[in-house]
Design the sequence.
């Protein structure tokens, strides 16, 4: 039997998960590889991320529409290196799907809101300055809810960047050619909440 395409490996990782599989099924969730045109659009619109999560209702900005036309959840792959490693892609899509859980799972939504409300004041101030410097179009609260809160959550679920190194207590991080000293990004209360989240999803990484 030939190997399954990497997109299918990642999809089945979600479909077979005891929590995520309740909400993301073959009828409403797919993993798609972007073509060259969409990769270029991703670089122009989003800065060139490796994955993009598309909720069913999101239409996308002009010229950069929902990859399926809408109606289903899509995890869109832009990183060819990631796509070439099915297990790494499976893990990345798992983290990407965290974006969709608050709208589906009430307990997860409660935990996520508790996490959002317990940032260390110094980290919160840093993020406010970053938001202002980047010139984001939406408000700070909207930016935190849309982007940064889930970025911090991914750090506790195997992400290899600065946040993942910080969560694991590693003194340094090295990721995509960048290397530096790890910072204490998570408050003690957030770590307590993350422990509950990891247990709820059965994550052992």
Sequence:
């Amino acid at each position: 039997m030939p190997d399954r395409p990497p997109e299918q490996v990642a999809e089945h990782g979600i479909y077979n998960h005891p929590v995520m599989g309740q909400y993301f099924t073959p009828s409403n969730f797919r993993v798609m590889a972007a073509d060259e045109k969409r990769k270029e659009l991703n670089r122009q619109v989003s800065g060139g991320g490796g994955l993009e999560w598309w909720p069913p209702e999101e239409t996308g900005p002009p010229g950069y529409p929902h990859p399926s036309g809408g109606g289903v959840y899509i995890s869109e792959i832009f990183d060819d290196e990631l796509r070439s490693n099915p297990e790494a892609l499976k893990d990345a899509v798992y983290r990407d799907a965290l974006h969709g859980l608050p709208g589906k799972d009430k307990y997860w939504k409660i935990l996520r809101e508790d996490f959002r409300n317990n940032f260390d004041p110094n980290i919160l101030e840093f993020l406010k300055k970053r938001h202002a410097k980047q010139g984001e179009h939406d408000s700070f609260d909207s930016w935190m809810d849309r982007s940064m809160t889930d970025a911090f959550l991914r750090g506790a679920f195997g992400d290899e960047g600065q946040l993942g190194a910080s969560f694991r207590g590693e003194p340094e991080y090295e990721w995509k050619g960048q290397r530096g000293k790890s910072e204490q990004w998570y408050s003690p209360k957030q770590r307590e909440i993350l422990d509950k989240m990891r247990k709820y999803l059965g994550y052992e990484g």
Observations:
- The chain has two domains: 6-101, 106-201.
